[in-house]
Amino acid sequence: MARFKPYDYAQGLIVPVNLEEQIKPGTFAFALHHLIEARYANYHSEPNLEACAARQLDAVIPDPNHRDRDERYDGRDRHLRKVRPKDSGRFAAADFTRDEEADTYRCPKGQILRRKPGTSTSTSGKGAFHKYEIESDFCSICEFRSRCVSINGKRRTLSVRIEPARPHCKAMRDKVDTPEGRHRYSYRMGTIEPIFANLRHAKGLNRIHYRGRQKVGVIWNLWSIMHNIGKIALYRPEYGTGEPATE
């Protein structure tokens, strides 16, 4: 199935999820993509969503923060990021001076922010960023600290976007936030998750003591057969009515 994460035995690592390779036309997973269309949040990435669009899969793949935007969840206000007022007086990116040659920024107090190695990529599809940070502890004694550093922060950082926002991620977020998208995600939770709940908690099948994709696949197929037999047994004929058994 498309949920499976292949294992690279040469490197000893789990291969990241790649829908372009795992869901191919003519495969069993492709035929049942309508049942697994609302997938886990770790599938939410620009390459995966682009592959779904290329294959015309009407997928519903939520991002990690989709519950924070759903007003139906109790206590969601505790996890929402507070919106900063525009007239708060805090320093914005425009208040920092850019040095193109040295690839640094200078804060209003004259301290230099140097770029940290690597590139940060937003999981919500806002693009890729370079992060700049002051190397010294000057921020702790700066008179502009209240206008520059957060309450729990130690030094000022600056994130500069180097790649535009990801269109497929944004479109999927908008789709998930619609009533239809939320309904389809709830349908997946009621269709797929009970299977794992039954196997793990009702049947006590929490671990596979075999190694290798082929052996694990055989055990998983046996578990699936057992689960399906249990469902069929609930609808065995009782006095010719064909109603679910009450025992």
TrEMBL record:
InterPro entries: Tnp_DDE_dom. This is Transposase DDE domain-containing protein. It holds the Pfam family DDE_Tnp_1_6. Residues 107-232 form the Transposase DDE domain. The lineage of its organism: Bacteria, Pseudomonadati, Verrucomicrobiota, Verrucomicrobiia, Verrucomicrobiales. It comes from the Bacteria. It comes from Haloferula luteola.
